[in-house]
Amino acid sequence: MFALYGSGVGKGIAIGKAFVLHRDQVEIPEYVLPKYLLEEEVERFHHAVQQAREQLTAITQHIPEGAPPETAGFMDAHLLMLEDRMLLEATIKTIREERYNAEWALKVHSDTLIAVFDKMEDPYLRNKKIDIHQVVDRVQRNLLMVQDQEHDRVLDGLDGHIVVANDLTPADTVMLKNHRIGAFVTNLGSPISHTAILARGLRIPAIVGLHGAVRYIRDGDSLIIDGKQGSLIIDPDNRLLKEFRAHKRQIDRLRAELQTLKSRLPVTQDAQQIDLMANIELPGDVKAVKKVAAAGVGLYRTEYLFMNKGTVPTESDHYNAYIRVIKSMGDMPITIRTMDLGTDKQVNGITGAENQGVNPALGLRAIRLCLQDPQLFKPQLRAILRASAHGKIRLMIPMVSSLDELDQTLDIIEESKRDLDRKHQKYDPNLPVGGMIEVPAAAISADLFAEHLDFLSIGTNDLIQYTLAIDRVDDTVNYLYDPLHPSVLRLIKMTIDAGNKAHIPVAMCGEMAGDTTYTRLLLGMGLRNFSMDAENLLEIKKIIIDSNSNRLATQAEQVLQATSSNEVHRLVHEINQGD
User: Fold this and answer.
1) What percent of the chain has pLDDT over 90?
2) 509 is an active site residue
3) Could you say which of 105, 258, 321, 527 would form a disulfide bridge with 100 (CB–CB 3.0 to 4.6 Å)?
4) 506 and 555: one domain?
């Protein structure tokens, strides 16, 4: 018996036999074609791409009933990649001009695209390279007429088995769910890859990024998967099996109980009303928001409007996307964050996008980029303002770090209002404007920002990274990434206090808000507005309903007085063990 650890992406427990999926990488040939065969080669490439479309479309038609709304979205994303001009047209051009075979031409351009995404600082966008690789691999297998026999063998019936693989695509995940697997483990992947997100939505316990899984696990091995802890136990003894089976029953009971909380208000035992909202990436994500009866959208990320096309989106592109969300959400509030693009997220037509900095995280990004290029910024602002005439919209500015920046931004918002006035277009003149507190300088000056804004929202992902000088997706240092570091907690508390003093709401929209480890501490620190991934909302609501905020305030004060991370972790553990 021994254990391996990776990144857990589901909260369930799975116990079952291993099925190791050995899927070898296809070997890509390189050769030069005579001129008279070039058009035939282009046609062969078109045929392989069309085959891939048909394969993905067929899988989409087998999405399990009750699957999360994003399931079809991820499949559609792969289908859209098969229409990508940067990939397809460039490949065809290389076939015709360089006379390369289709496989090699496709490899050349997919490697270039993957390299671009690999340089991106934003972890979500960086993981897009996985999707490119998966889509290209499907086309390559069609070109080479490689039959994926091992994959077909999986689909012959693995009820309750735990699939172990080097990697899985979203399409694989959908098909495996249909065949009732118990869980899966992959060597590669990250907690924010599409496959991982699907696993959470489909409630498949899974572990990704468990390097060496295929090497150490054999077909038929008895396995225990703890999706929350990211732990895998191989050949457990009877004592452990009994313990985890009891734990699994407890989790199943909790899930059933959470479903009964959808109609209940998130109110603490001492009558403190808490706002629980959800974060979204795409208009289609609204279905998940409504499924858990969230109070609204606390963070609508708009970067996808830029990243899914080769040109800058127009004002109409922005407006139409926002109206879709408004129509779906009805009277519920929606907080739209303006573009958080930068030198790490290249988009054609954006000034400065071609100038990669040494450290993109500290470069020209978010509001800095918008202020440098108001003609990029204004169409989005006008679209948000126009959308505000149709719903409860709030505008949020990312990465504010100085009052000078804020003043310039507010001036451009006023200019955008005047633009609409001249065209006699309607908007909410009192549109609430808030700022994301995700830079230490902003947290330290939160009291100053609070005098000029209608609300604040703490973006913990960047705040922690910037405070501790740690890249949380860098395997060599991410062990230092600690949301409970005393400095991080002090900055959060300063922001909450600044908002309370100015009588404006303070929300948290980073990952801390959706992690049950921190819920009671944040309640004790005075946080009353949480925004998170919809899948975490009901579990957070349960903790809130079971908590007394007055009692937690006393305990939180002890945590804030602690001087070491070890002491903070001990005290938070005690808070979470309380009744």
Assistant:
1) 54
2) yes
3) 105
4) yes
> By residue range, what is the domain housing residue 233?
2-22+149-239+251-256
Annotated catalytic residue: which of 133, 151, 485, 509? 509
Confidence (pLDDT) at 287:
86
Q: What are phi and psi of 18, to 5 degrees?
A: -80, 140
Q: How far apart are CA 514 and CA 276, in angstroms?
A: 10
Q: Are residues 160 and 16 in the same domain?
A: yes
Tens of pLDDT, residues 348-377: 445 444 444 545 566 777 888 888 888 889
Mark whether 120 and 165 lie in a shared domain. Answer: no
| Statement: the pTM of the whole predicted model exceeds 0.85 | no
Candidate list 133, 151, 194, 318, residue with the active-site label: 194
pLDDT value at 58 more than 60? yes
Residue 415 within any structural domain of the chain: yes
Residue 194 catalytic? yes
Query: Got the DSSP string for 36-76?
Result: GGHHHHHHHHHHHHHHHHHHHHHHHTTPPTT--THHHHHHH
Q: How far apart are CA 391 and CA 334, in angstroms?
A: 8
- List pLDDT tens digits, range 87-110: 889 999 999 999 999 999 999 989
Domain match, 66 and 153 both:
no
Token pair for 447: 């009291």
